[in-house]
Amino acid sequence: MSIPFYVSPEQLVKDRAAFARKGIARGRSVVAGSCADGVLFVADNPSRTLHKVSEIYDRIGFAAVGKYNEFENLRVAGVQYADMRGYSYDRADVTARALARAYSQTLGAMFTQGPKPFEVELVVAEAGSRSGADELYRLTFDGSIVDEPEVIAMGGQEESVQAALRSGWRQDLTLAEAVRLAADALSPGKPGDEGAHAAQPQAASGSAPGGLVLEVALLDRSASGRAFRRIGGGELADLLG
Hints:
Shape: globular
Radius of gyration: 18 Å
Helix content: 25-40%
Strand content: 15-25%
Number of strands: 11
């Protein structure tokens, strides 16, 4: 009679978390932060066709690091959720908080019950009517949600990028100041090729210090209706100075 294979719940959780973290760390970093003009997204992304940063709804944006096919499926599900809720109730009922809760349930269920956890981390952000009223939610692979008041860094050299941002980030930064600070923070110590985790693009992209290729987008708080816009080409070059 064979003895069933047994792994303690504590060890299983540790193994799943280590697996997810390893996959996420292969990705290049993404920064999302609140500035005077709205919510800024800046991603280190060499691809011109696969986006790390996208629009979800009128004033809601999405950014991710990790395994592309997994977070792209989550992005599409978020768009469908937002469209259905806005159609069934009211467009004002679609909020970043509600979307973050829905993502949390999906990630948590996959972490505890799925064949493997998603190798992704997400940011869901909503531009407020004024500086200080923006909402930024970070979601980790196990479904945990963190409400970040100012700026978030994920993936790659996350700790060094976060440290560089924390030393200079303010919610009253101009768009140009915020873009330059994010680019400078992303420049040192880039990780190697992402291989199967290769995430994303740039319909709005440009070169930054050290040959860094950026994908940049803004949730513009001054816009009426849809606030998401990509920043690239000459506009990005001017912002980088």
